[in-house]
Amino acid sequence: MTAAPTETSVVDNVGKDLFIGGQWRKATDGKTLPVYDPSTGKVLCEVADASPEDGKAALDAAVAAQPSFAKHPPRERGEILRRAYQLLIDRTEELALLMTLEMGKPLAESRGEVAYAAEFFRWFAEEAVRIEGGYAVAPNGKGRFLIHRQPVGPALLITPWNFPMAMGTRKLGPAIAAGCTSVIKPAAQTPLSMLALAGILAEAGLPDGVVNVVTTSDSGGVMEPLIRDGRARKLSFTGSTAVGRKLLEQCADKVLRTSMELGGNAPFIVFDDADLDVAVEGAMLAKLRNIGEACTAANRFYVQRGVADEFARRLTEKMAAQPIGRGTEEGVVIGPLVDEAAVEKVSSLVSDAVERGAKVLTGGEPIEGPGHFYPPTVLSDVPQDARVAHEEIFGPVAPINVFDTEDEVVAKANDTEYGLVSYVFTQDINRAIRVCEALETGMVGLNQGIVSNPAAPFGGVKQSGLGREGGTVGIDEFLETKYIAINV
Ligand code: NAP
Hints:
Elements: H1 7-12, E1 18-20, E2 23-25, E3 32-36, E4 43-48, H2 52-71, H3 74-90, H4 92-103, H5 107-127, E5 134-137, E6 144-151, E7 155-158, H6 166-178, E8 182-185, H7 192-203, E9 211-213, H8 219-229, E10 234-238, H9 241-254, E11 257-261, E12 266-270, H10 276-288, E13 298-304, H11 305-320, H12 340-355, E14 359-362, E15 377-380, E16 397-403, H13 406-413, E17 421-425, H14 429-438, E18 443-446, E19 465-466, E20 479-486
Parallel strand pairs: 7-8, 7-10, 8-9, 10-11, 12-13, 12-17, 13-16, 15-16, 17-18
Antiparallel strand pairs: 1-2, 3-4, 5-6, 6-20, 11-19, 14-15
Bound molecules: NADP nicotinamide-adenine-dinucleotide phosphate.
NADP nicotinamide-adenine-dinucleotide phosphate binds at residues 158-163, 167, 185, 187-188, 219-220, 223, 238-240, 243, 246, 261-264, 295, 392, 420, 460, 465.
């Protein structure tokens, strides 16, 4: 019987070096960077801090591995992903604890993320053998068209700290399935989940150089030369819109294919005719999943006047009852935010709303350290010009604004540069279809507070991004279409 994982064992067991060309190696200048536990502020361990030179070595390895990996049989690419899926599932407890330690989310949510992350590998294991082309007769009846799909080439992948494993598998799954090699750079705050994933992929039989992991405190300094190098043909980025814009400019130079999963500002709309039990349950999920630190988090609650007081009362009661604490303690629902800057940002958004007339129904003040805690907070009477209506909160704060008509709420919901997801609660089917179609977002949760699913196309419109991850279209982001004109 294997011993239950402990905080020390899970941190000790993960590789701390760079993973390049199938080897673990130190940063060339020997530098390391600290990884913190956000619930205590203490250092968990140090990992290699890559320099631009290390980044180049990782790209060299990906470029060298690309031709042979492109020819690797699709079934075998799928089998590698399937084995990695199983290893992730088998090691859920260790991986969940590791994730909670570096990121803060409660264990139950980390377990959920390991399952969600693994599912991208299983899904794309199945997609690897379904890369279809086509054959057609030219309209003039003479020629023939052969449509062939090939890997786009070496890819650069950049992931954020909030879902440190799933944002990695959501890119690595389709990249591997399509036959692309990659250099992946996790966020400096949460490198351990990605390093654990690299070890698992190697164990699952991934050939050397197919996935290369660089951890660094100098993300711009390491990644910009790789983007501008020209040998990588693709950038897939998940993170903030501000950084995404900057990376798009860098990609323009060598005309890289890009996939951008950026920020969100999700409206959560409750109509008078909604089932309030379902709406409150959906609100709790959409607001508190990942302690509110999710691109899909409900950012603005618009509730129709007839149910506004009752919805606010029920939501406040539930939000106030959530246990707060270190994510490693069973039963905790609200872990710490990722760092002190996150607490300051949430506090300043709440203060701004209150100064403009919002009322605090619960929470509203940061919790004293150690650790970076902010309590579940509900605000009512939040005016549309408050900063919370326009900026990503990334914390457990639910601002409520009352509306009267369907046209009014659709206009308010669409009054943002973002367009990732929206949530709609109504029992009127005609209204549901009208509103879902009118909302300018890539995804809509209709009477449900979670939309993420590896089998569905995830992504945003407007400044929330370009492209889709997951679903049957997810692999397209890593494939080029070649057409061969045949003279018959
Ligand atoms: P971020 O600051 O944009 O960072 C995201 C990633 O980009 C990190 O790995 C970061 O590395 C790296 N990075 C930062 N500056 C860079 C640069 N100049 N060049 C290359 N890489 C750079 O975002 P975050 O604060 O980590 O994550 C939260 C954001 O991600 C939110 O806006 C959230 O909505 C968004 N998000 C979107 C989705 C989606 O699917 N749409 C999913 C999850 C999160 P370092 O941290 O090491 O600097």
